[in-house]
Sequence to fold (278 residues):
Amino acid sequence: MGKIRVKTFGDEEVEQKQKEEEKKRKEAKKAAKGTVVEPKAEEVEPTESSSAEATAGKEELESVEAPKEEKKNRKLSEAKSPKGAFHSQKYQTLSGQFDKSKAYSIKEALELLEKLQRKSFDETVELHLNTLTSGVSGQITLPHGTGKVTRVAIADDKLIAEIEKGVINFDVLVAEPAMMVKLAKVAKVLGPRGLMPNPKNGTITVKPEEVAKKYADGQINFKTEAKAPIMHLTVGKMSFGPEKLTENIEALIAAIKKSNIVNATLKSTMSPGLKIKA
Fold:
């Protein structure tokens, strides 16, 4: 037979006090841990003031987010716009004056380039080539030069000391074979700039004065880029006129060899590119 609990008078009062004390201990423990006891949602009755504040806050948030959304949409619109849309109106007008799919003769291309000139300065004429393979290289002295003054230097102890200080005042460096040992200590400076003397382009020679004169007179090196079979070459200035420019272009194409050329594009500094028959 189980135990019989006899409830005496006053037990209910004791139990109630114990429950209240237990509740206080739990709340104190939660407060110590940084827990905030919030009333349940159903216990909070919304008032007119709280509803008004919520509405005002929502309107304010929408007003702040609106310009952000407009800005985002504008950026997306710009990103989707065709690349040509970022050119000036004048450039687009010039582009409409020729057939982009047609390969022009050198004569026709130069006549068009003359019409496309902006006349604000003497633009450089550039020939851009795609070749069959990489590794196509050589040198040529253009019949009429490039129109650019080429700064040529001959390596000596004084010049090497200047290079070590970061002073480079030349476009081509010519050196005797005996100087290559001394130039080795500045190879990290000259190499990335394409200025290190090289037997392939004739800049290492026993006759540096003669080679320096050739470069000063307009001799240029041509070589495909390291990572792609393409070349970017200067063939003169618009002020040369069509006859001299034609002779320069034809001489350069002959040196590179037509069999090595896949396609060619002629342009001036600020003009669109024109496909030409190489």
Q: What stands out?
A: Residues 35-50, 76-85 have pLDDT under 50 and may be disordered.
